[in-house]
Write a structure and sequence with these properties.
Elements: H1 11-19, E1 23-26, E2 31-33, H2 47-56, E3 62-66, E4 72-76, H3 78-89, H4 91-94, E5 101-105, H5 113-126, H6 132-144, H7 148-157, H8 164-171, H9 176-184, H10 189-198, H11 204-218, H12 224-252, E6 256-257, H13 263-268, E7 270-271, E8 275-276, H14 285-288, E9 294-298, E10 304-308, E11 317-318, H15 328-366, H16 373-385, H17 388-396, H18 400-405, H19 417-421, H20 429-444, E12 449-450, E13 453-454, H21 461-476, H22 485-491
Parallel strand pairs: 2-4, 3-5, 6-9
Antiparallel strand pairs: 1-5, 3-4, 7-10, 8-11, 9-10, 12-13
Helix pairs in contact: 2-3, 2-7, 6-8, 8-10, 10-12, 11-12, 12-15, 15-20, 16-20, 17-20
Length: 502
């Protein structure tokens, strides 16, 4: 086994370097890459570094050596030097100062190309990126110890959004494997924190990464598909929790659960609807309550279905019912009916989940400085044409959704919209009109089932026009909003036909 020894400089030279550290403030435009800089790949600064340098400048000195033409060759910190040059190019138009760069000027390295490359190699070889968890912890501790002004500046320099400290603390709850997967997949800090909220839902990480990939593929910097998938995961999580709470309530009330019965009793347990008393009278839950075999299961709506664990032992009779054998065709119809029921449950849940991202997007539109003209014309048309659904909504005088669009919190939903609107400048009258029209549409499509059909199966053209408008506005806003899968299904028949499709 061979050992590579690091070259040791002459003792007098080393003493000179340690005794005379020479730092200068250099014009970034005079910096060039030293021909003996050991880093030859990934030499370009990334956006995160450029953002930091724009805000704070180059905090850590770089290392350079003078060149005959008056420039300085950078052998340590070339990426930082380039970031400073890029930042200075736009400093004037952004209202930022043109910054100099702190540098160790190593005149003693002029003509010592080999040793210069060695120093550059040590710098880059020893510089290893911290793990995701260490990075989050370091960022959190740094921000917690700052006042509000410094915290805002540091968060901006690190590319973090509002609420960074909370997100940093939340994101650290993920296990190492999931945290690495989230980081490798490109999740930002807020998205990583959101993953923590729904981590217990099966396949949550994979589903969110897939949605993130769709947003990234569109290349607009938006997160419309992520928001929809996250909302659906939250709805599924709430549904699972509601079912768990229903089971817990039954158990707490002293009712035995069918799922907790021994295997043999599970096989013999029968619902009361299929049993009678010994004399043939129907069995209700009230009459059966005192039976030792009284137990329950939950149906799809989390309502109790009452059972007897051992009807024969407790003197109950099985209600006589004809049991015709099913033909192959009948069996297929039964399987199809079961699949349709599962689809209804899934689509209804997805429909309700989609309302969250949709209404958040509308709130952002309403509170924006300039409402897109497309939205103004749409709202104007509704006010002039007065469709029936708009009058129905107005008659109910339910203004909670409208109040939220105008900026009311959940606690202030009873505040009258006119009170909230008073704070809007008169130049934003179109925003107020759009908020009112959007609230009427939201009431019109709130429930997935209308009469004898479902909106995601058969949607009225005016409702589809509303969703297609929001989709178009979201695409124009850098992909900040996208329709959910169930909404895309609902509007599919109403999309404008292209010449190719025709």
């Amino acid at each position: 086994m061979s050992t590579t020894l690091s070259p040791t400089p002459d003792a007098s030279v080393q003493q000179q370097e340690e005794a005379n550290p020479h730092i200068e403030l250099l014009d970034a435009s005079r910096l060039v890459r030293d021909e003996h800089n050991a880093r030859e790949h990934d030499t370009e600064p990334d956006e995160k570094l450029i953002t930091s340098v724009k805000e704070l400048g180059v905090e850590e000195p770089i290392s350079v050596r003078p060149r005959p033409d008056g420039t300085y060759g950078v052998f340590k910190g070339w990426r930082r030097a380039q970031a400073a040059q890029i930042a200075n190019e736009t400093a004037g138009q952004d209202g930022r100062p043109v910054r100099t760069v702190k540098a160790f000027v190593r005149a003693d390295l002029v003509g010592r190309d080999g040793y210069t490359r060695f120093l550059s190699l040590v710098e880059n070889d020893n510089r290893q990126e911290m793990g995701a968890r260490d990075t989050l912890k370091a960022q959190e501790l740094a921000l917690v110890g700052m006042d509000e002004v410094d915290q805002a500046r540091a968060a901006k320099a690190m590319g973090l959004r509002r609420g960074a400290v909370k997100h940093l603390r939340t994101a650290q709850k993920l296990d190492d494997a999931t945290l690495r997967q989230a980081t490798a997949g490109g999740m930002d800090l807020e998205q990583t924190a959101q993953l923590t909220e729904v981590e217990d839902v099966p396949q949550a990480t994979q589903r969110l990464l897939k949605a993130l990939a769709r947003d990234q593929a569109e290349g607009q910097g938006g997160r419309g598909h992520w928001d929809q998938e996250f909302a659906l995961l939250k709805e599924e999580q709430a549904s699972s929790q509601a079912r768990a709470d229903a089971f817990a309530a039954l158990k707490e009330s002293g009712v035995t659960l069918v799922s907790s019965l021994p295997y043999g009793q599970k096989q013999s347990a029968k619902p009361l609807s299929g049993l009678t008393t010994g004399l043939g009278a129907p069995l209700s839950a009230d009459k059966h309550h005192a039976c030792p075999g009284h137990c329950a299961a939950l149906d799809e709506d989390n309502q109790p279905v009452w059972y007897c664990a051992d009807p024969a032992t407790h003197g109950h009779k099985v209600r006589k019912q004809p049991k015709p054998s099913l033909t192959a065709e009948e069996a297929e119809r039964a399987a199809q009916k079961s699949a349709e029921r599962a689809q209804v449950v899934a689509c209804n849940r997805a429909w309700k989940a989609a309302a969250g991202p949709r209404q958040q997007f509308i709130s952002r539109l309403v509170r924006s400085k300039a409402l897109p003209d497309q939205a103004r014309l749409f709202a104007q048309g509704v006010l002039l044409d007065l469709p029936r659904f708009y009058g129905t909504w107005a008659d109910k005088a339910d203004t909670k959704t409208l109040a939220r669009f105008l900026g009311a919190s959940e606690e202030d939903e009873r505040t009258m919209p006119s009170t909230l609107a008073a704070s809007f400048p008169k130049a934003r009258l179109a925003n107020l009109v759009f908020a009112q029209v959007a609230a009427a549409y939201e009431a019109d499509i709130r429930e997935p089932k209308v009469f004898d059909t479902f909106l995601w199966k058969k949607m009225h053209p005016r409702q589809a026009a509303y969703l297609l408008l929001l989709e178009s506005l979201g695409q124009a806003d850098s992909g900040s909003y996208a329709l959910s899968e169930v909404e895309e299904q609902a509007v599919a028949a109403h999309r404008p036909k292209t010449p190719d499709a025709a």
